[in-house]
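Sorry, explain these tokens?

___
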Amino acid sequence: MTATRPAPTVLTGRFVRLEPFDAEAHTDGLFAALAHPEVFAGGYGGGPAGLPADRAAFGDWVAGYGNADDARKFVVRLIGGADGGGGAGDADGVGGTIVGASTLGDLDERTEQLQLGWTGYDPRVWGTAVNPETKLLLLGHAFTHGYGRVKIQADSQNDRSRAAILKLGATFEGVLRRDRVRADGTFSGTAVHSILIDEWPAVRAGLEARLARHTAPIELADRS
């Protein structure tokens, strides 16, 4: 099957809706969700030193992060319940609180490969249905468009992200040593994982089984 580049589109699950990134519509919501030290602590955005100093700096940063010309960048928004549009909703007026972002990038139709990455979430949704459903939607989007290999990477020292990737059912391929420069100028290794099209049915079944254990809409706790 020949890969075809997906057009920007909305992807909808039971708990989240993924929307193509729009800087004007989404930056305030992403700032509220992601501009926290614990989000950047594990390597997101280049690590702790990459955390933008304020809303203006965040706007400049997020407009470029994972937003190459060949990328499909998505904002993750809750659906269902008070935080999913049943109550006040998000500050942009659309409804449904923005809780993160993720990207399909490095799209290569000839080799039928891409990378699923540049992913960050509001800490209040860590451990919920948000990540598995986001991955289910994005992986399905990639494989439906004929891609045969999806790469998922993490900073080699980010144990939490690496464990989450393995829990998806991805295969660990190895560590690229001294591969990237963090925002503070230090070097990091990159732990590389992948999912192949032949493995997708089993990975999909695993994600669907995890999501089946969640029944109630996701509720966000107030930040102290």
In short: The helical segments are 23-34, 37-40, 55-64, 130-144, 159-168, 200-212.
